[in-house]
Design a protein that fits this description.
alpha+beta, 2 domains, 8-stranded mixed beta sheet, 5 helices, globular
Length: 206
């Protein structure tokens, strides 16, 4: 009789320990793991050269003119059928997500098709997305130099008509911090809310 009672107590003790362990594990897994923020952070940041191109008003414009702000850079062209308009639409969403912090961020579209992308054309293009967006253009030699720091690739895809062509180009977006250092690269079609959070951390000095 006592042996049966002893075995019952042992069984109950084991059952209680299992239940307590289960409760403990449920506390550790109380919610889903947070979704990782998009982008690759360069640590340490990469020093990049200043550059001067022509802006959408026809005036010289340097990267250093934006010192003190976080800068989102994208390299594309106005005749781009898909990647460029998609990315600038995402930039618009990022700006909206930033709220008041958007005043501390500049959004810059750099053309890799200087032969066609005049300042007037750039102005119409970038302002169709947001009146505060900045468009920059320059000749091929200048663009090759600027693109080296960011690993930019672009190549014209020719057709029979020399004025009718597409340009294959890097689809990533790049973030430069307030001190002019290259800090983050975002792959194409990154989540705008996630990009905004990464940029907000830079604005806050994190």
């Amino acid at each position: 009789m006592q042996r049966s009672r002893f075995l019952l107590l042992i069984t109950l003790a084991l059952l209680v320990s299992v239940l307590l362990a289960a409760c403990g594990s449920s506390g550790d897994d109380a919610g889903p793991s947070p979704t990782p923020l998009p982008g690759t952070i360069l640590d340490p940041p990469k020093e990049v050269a200043d550059f001067t191109l022509t802006d959408h008003t026809g005036q010289p414009f340097s990267l250093s003119d934006l010192r003190g702000k976080v800068v989102m850079l994208f390299f594309g062209y106005t005749n781009c059928p898909d990647v460029c308009p998609t990315t600038l639409a995402e930039f618009k969403q990022v700006k909206a997500q930033l709220g008041e912090d958007a005043d501390q961020v500049a959004f810059v579209f750099v053309s890799v098709d200087g032969a066609r992308d005049t300042p007037e054309r750039l102005a119409a293009y970038v302002h169709a997305f947001d009146p505060d967006f900045i468009g920059l253009t320059g000749d091929d030699a200048a663009m090759r130099t600027v693109g080296q720091d960011y690993g930019i690739f672009y190549q014209r895809v020719s057709y029979d008509n020399p004025d009718n062509y597409l340009v294959d180009h890097t689809a990533s977006s790049f973030v430069v911090d307030q001190e002019g250092r290259y800090r983050i690269v975002f792959p194409y079609q990154s989540d705008p809310a996630g990009m905004a959070e990464q940029i907000r951390r830079l604005v806050a000095g994190q």
